[in-house]
Amino acid sequence: MAESVEFQPRRFRTAAKHYLAGRSAYAPRLIELVAGLVGLGTADQVLDLGCGPGMLAGAFAPLAREVVAVDPEPEMLRIAEAQFGGAGRIVFRQGSSFDLSPAWGRFRLVTMGRSFHWMDRADTLRRLDGMIEPGGAVALFDSDMLDVPENAWREDYRAVVRRYASADTSHVRHRGPVWVRHEAFLLESAFNALEQVSVIERRTVTVRQLVDRAFSRSSTAPGRLGDAAPRLAEEIEAVMRPLATDGVLAEVVVTSALLGRRGG
After folding, report:
1. What is the pLDDT of residues 16-64, one digit of tens each?
2. What residues does 144 pair with on adjacent strands?
3. Which CATH class is domain 16-261?
4. Which end of the chain has fewer surrounding CB within 10 Å, N or C?
5. How far is Cα 89 from Cα 54, in angstroms, rounded to an integer?
6. pTM given for the model
7. Where are the domains of the chain?
8. Which ranges of the chain does DSSP label H, i.e. alpha helix?
9. Distance between CA atoms of 66 and 62, rounded to whole angstroms?
C-alpha cells in the first residue's frame, strides 16, 4: 500500500503551546499496561516518534533507561524539554519519520501519539523494522470521547470547531472513503501481531481547556486562523459556558494503544 504524504514540518508551530493544556492526557494505567505487555525495563530504550510536547516521552521516561523524543517542530521540542527534560532520561532530537535510521539505536518500544497518520506509514514501518529489537513493539496511542450522556456537550463543541476548520482540506485523505486504517498497514508490515488495550476514565475539563483543545489542532491553530482565532475562542465560551458548572464539564475519555509486534 502506497500513499502520497505532504510533509509539513511547521504545521503545529502555533498549536504547540496549547497542546498540553487542551489535549487529553494518556491514562497512567494505560502506560503501565503497555510497558508490561512489551516487557519494558529500565535497561531498555524507547523512541517517541512525533513526540509533540512530550506527553508519552515523559510518561515512559521513568520506566526505561532512555527515551529518544523526536519531532520536526522546534517549538514542540522546546516545550517538551521545558516540561519533561528535568527527568534526565529523555534525549530530544529534531527530525521526523523520514529521518529514521539504525544509527539512532535499537529500541524495545516505539511510541506514536496521534502522529502516525502524518507519516508515510508503510515506509515508516519498514524503517522501524531495522531499529526495533527482537520482542519489541510499535505502539500507536490515541484518545477519544465515548458516546455516553456525560459527553452530550461534545456535539455542540465539535460543531463550532468544524465551522472554523472547514477551510482546511489537508485532512481530507484521513476522513474520506479512501482512508486506510492503521491496522491495515501494520498487518502488511513486520509488526503484524496486533492487540489493542484501552482505559476508560471519568474526568473533568474546563471551558478554557476546550479553547486550548481547539487551538491545539493544526486545522484550527491560531497561526492558521489568524484574525478568526479570537472569534473561535469567544464562540466556544458562549456555547459551552451555559452547559458547564462553574466553567467545568464532565467528560468520559478512552485512551488506547494499538500494539504491533512481529510474528502474526
Report:
1. 999 999 999 999 999 999 999 999 999 999 999 999 999 999 999 999 9
2. 254
3. alpha beta
4. N
5. 12
6. 0.93
7. 16-261
8. 16-22, 28-38, 55-60, 74-84, 121-129, 154-165, 172-175, 182-187, 207-215, 222-225, 229-240
9. 9
